UniProtKB/TrEMBL annotation:
It comes from Cohnella candidum. GO terms for biological process: transmembrane transport. This is Carbohydrate ABC transporter permease. It is found in: Cell membrane. Belongs to the binding-protein-dependent transport system permease family. It is a multi-pass membrane protein. The lineage of its organism: Bacteria, Bacillati, Bacillota, Bacilli, Bacillales. PROSITE patterns: ABC_TM1. One of its GO terms (cellular component) is plasma membrane.
């Protein structure tokens, strides 16, 4: 193997070497451009807000301080809201992935009579929407206002996720599914014991999409559960904190007092802190799903 690599390197043309060098430089620049905004946000979030107004903070805080995080976490409701966000993310992701996979398996079967009609009906929902007011009236008539399940049930089937899973299932060898039927397994047993284990890569991809959407969602809280403080989510509470900091800043000519010993915060510092707080759970989870994410997007996007 080493001999082959040496021979390959020996006979490479100058053009190949230039291409590799340029390619490496471009990829390095892409990494820098991608990571810099987040690193800058992290530096601003742990820098003293009063000092941050001067600017000039790039990769490292100039005056280290936890005052921004103290301001964000000073409210006891923020921890309960984080718990609600975790619950809706976990429950919503599990139910959405399972139901989407079950529907995707159904419409992937060639012997399903309404396969084409159901597929078109789902796709049409991606282009046409009833609108905000009809959706609100529907949720109200279903009795889901001020209810935890309003976070789960309306988005239980994602059409984009459905298409990805269906494409993946259609690429599975039909002989495997036929073998399970010959052994006497029904469709549900085949789905649980054969299809689900084989579709783990694409299910992990869809789970990541769904979890990010559930974790970042706040507008449905504003619409349906804004009166129920016990059902408020982390993103909604962070949004309210940002609004309060903006209002306080307007009233104090550029500064907002955090009420914890006279420390000052600004909308910029609070925005950076909120970004870190909201992004950290996804950043922690993503490395564990990365290998499934790449494989799922590669295989799920192309019909075998």
């Amino acid at each position: 193997m080493e001999k082959t690599q040496k021979l390959y390197g020996r006979f490479r043309s100058p053009g190949d070497r230039i291409f590799d060098t340029v390619n490496a430089i471009l990829l390095l620049l892409l990494v820098v451009v991608t990571l810099y905004p987040f690193v800058n946000m992290l530096a601003v979030s742990v820098n003293d807000a009063n000092d941050s107004i001067k600017g000039g903070i790039y990769l490292w805080p100039r005056v280290f301080s936890w005052s921004n995080y103290a301001y964000v976490f000073r409210e006891a409701t923020i921890f309960h809201a984080a718990w609600i966000s975790i619950l809706r993310t976990v429950i919503g992701t599990v139910i959405t992935v399972f139901c989407s996979a079950m529907v995707a398996y159904t419409i992937s079967r060639q012997d399903f009579v309404l396969r084409k009609f159901v597929s078109i009906a789902f796709v049409l929902t991606m282009y046409f929407n009833g609108g905000l007011i009809p959706n609100y009236l529907l949720i109200r008539e279903l009795g889901m206002l001020n209810n935890f399940w309003v976070y789960i049930i309306p988005g239980i089937i994602g059409v984009f996720n459905l298409i990805i899973i269906r494409s993946f299932i259609e690429g599975l060898p039909e002989s495997i599914l036929e073998s399970s039927r010959i052994d006497g397994a029904g469709e549900f047993t085949t789905f649980i014991k054969i299809v689900l284990p084989l579709t783990v890569p694409v299910l992990a991809t869809v789970a990541l999409f769904t979890a990010v959407w559930q974790w970042n969602s706040w507008f449905d809280v504003f619409l349906y559960n804004s009166r129920e403080l016990n059902l408020s989510t982390l993103q909604y509470e962070l949004m309210k904190i940002l609004q309060n900091s903006n209002a306080s800043t307007s009233a104090t000519d550029g500064f907002a007092t955090s009420q914890n010993g006279g420390n000052f915060v600004t909308p910029t510092s609070i925005r950076a802190t909120m970004t870190i707080v909201a992004s950290l759970p996804i950043i922690i989870v993503y490395p564990f799903l990365q290998k499934y994410f790449v494989k799922g997007m590669t295989l799920g996007g192309v019909k075998g």
